[in-house]
Amino acid sequence: MEKGFVKTETENKIATVTFFHPKSNSLPSELLKQLKEAFVKLSDENSVNVIVLKSEGEKAFCAGASFDELLSIETFEQGKEFFMGFARLVNTMRKCNKIIIGRIHGKAVGGGVGLVSATDYALAAATASLKLSELAIGLGPFVVGPPIERKIGVKDFNAMALDCQWRSAAWGKEHGFYKETFESIEELDKAVDDFANELASRNPEALKKLKEIFWEGTAHWDKLLEERAENSGRLVLSDFTKEFIRKFKSKT
Q: At what angle do helices 221-235 and 145-152 cross, to 10 degrees?
């Protein structure tokens, strides 16, 4: 539990991928790897028609990158490899043959916003606000930028990246992060269950073809996200960034 976990459960052609980390569902390298592997396995699983992505707990959906791991990075190679964890996860989700539904129960920060954007359809609680905080700690939302920009457009991505301010769940719905928001977790869970069951009853080949259409124009992302990971891998080594991460971490 101290290191977190990723688990997959399958029932009625619906696979539920759940992740957890005690520090606000942040994502260290090991959890990024486990999430990627879960989607790789499910992509060609004939007994699964749809995937639900969720996290455990009652507070944050995902706090993004692990500050502890960011502070431990000492070389460019280590830095690039850490951010490649996010790059591989985003690319695996977009290439996955199954529709991925996001069940977003709480706040999403940094890489967590990227995770929301990499789903195909997201439903959220009214408390599921969003924030890109990378610039505030000396980095930038480089790796997660492409799926976010694709979801909400250049103008709104630029504003989120620069002002590092919270956006409400209502704003997220209005700008395309979420299809719908709900006042209670019970309402959210019912909506997720109902929609997942609806999709699970559809023609899996039709769903697969739709997924391909949804992500048309992103074939170059394998190279693009690696280049973005290199940007972050260099910046995370700077004294400026290290100091800001320490200050930011002390407040959380």
A: 120
